[in-house]
Specification:
Blueprint: E1 4-5, E2 25-30, H1 37-44, E3 56-58, E4 64-66, H2 80-85, E5 86-91, E6 96-99, E7 105-106, E8 112-113, E9 118-123, E10 126-130, H3 134-151, E11 172-175, H4 176-179, H5 192-199
Length: 202
């Protein structure tokens, strides 16, 4: 069972739409920022009135934060049909990294990643990635199971994390990079086959 913190980073009604919608998908994304910097940015974006919030965030320590009730939606994808039908989960992770001449590993925003958290793997023109902690992945599985059961979403994850023009028709778990063609919100460190086994996908 996953514990959910509904208070620490709860947002107000102005940060999401007022009407409840039927959910057919869970969309997984990465924060592309160090630690909780993506939350701090959203809290100040548009003078605190931003509607670009995700529904849940899972920290690197595995803490699950709920930002608003998962029956509602915001403009996480900024794609109307996708946002209405999905519950969005963001993992704190910088994703792709650059190895500098000074032997540092930095994100696209020049945020530094500790060397112990760097994984080397060539994929899509990148060579270094921020490691995804086991506890973070475990709680992602638990949260997805909980949301699938609550909203009657199939417990199955799409088997690729790159763009597909008809991704809105898929019922189950997808990635933000499935929706956005030029997205850098991709990470090859999620073992999708294992993820599906953990979800109980037949």
């Amino acid at each position: 069972m996953v514990r959910i913190d509904k208070k620490t980073y709860q947002v107000s009604e102005i940060n999401r739409y007022k009407n409840k919608t039927v959910k057919t998908q869970i969309v997984i994304g990465f924060s592309l920022r160090k630690d909780n910097y993506h939350i701090l940015r959203l809290q100040n974006k548009d003078y605190g009135k931003s509607k670009r919030w995700n529904t849940y965030t899972i920290s690197r320590k595995g803490t699950v934060y709920q930002h608003y009730d998962d029956s509602f939606h915001s403009n996480f994808l900024n794609i109307k049909i996708g946002d209405k039908q999905s519950i969005s989960i963001v993992l704190e992770n910088m994703s792709s990294l650059i190895h500098t001449d000074g032997d540092k590993y930095v994100s696209w925003l020049n945020e530094s990643c500790p060397k112990k958290n760097v994984v080397e793997k060539e994929w899509f023109g990148y060579y270094f990635w921020e490691k995804i902690p086991e506890i973070q992945l475990n709680n992602l599985v638990l949260l997805c199971k909980k949301m699938c059961e609550k909203h009657n979403i199939p417990k199955t994850c799409i088997d690729f994390n790159t763009y597909h023009k008809n991704i809105n028709k898929f019922k189950g778990i997808v990635f933000r990079s499935n929706y956005i063609e030029d997205s850098n919100d991709i990470n090859p460190l999620i073992d999708i086959e294992l993820f599906n086994k953990q979800l109980g996908t037949k």
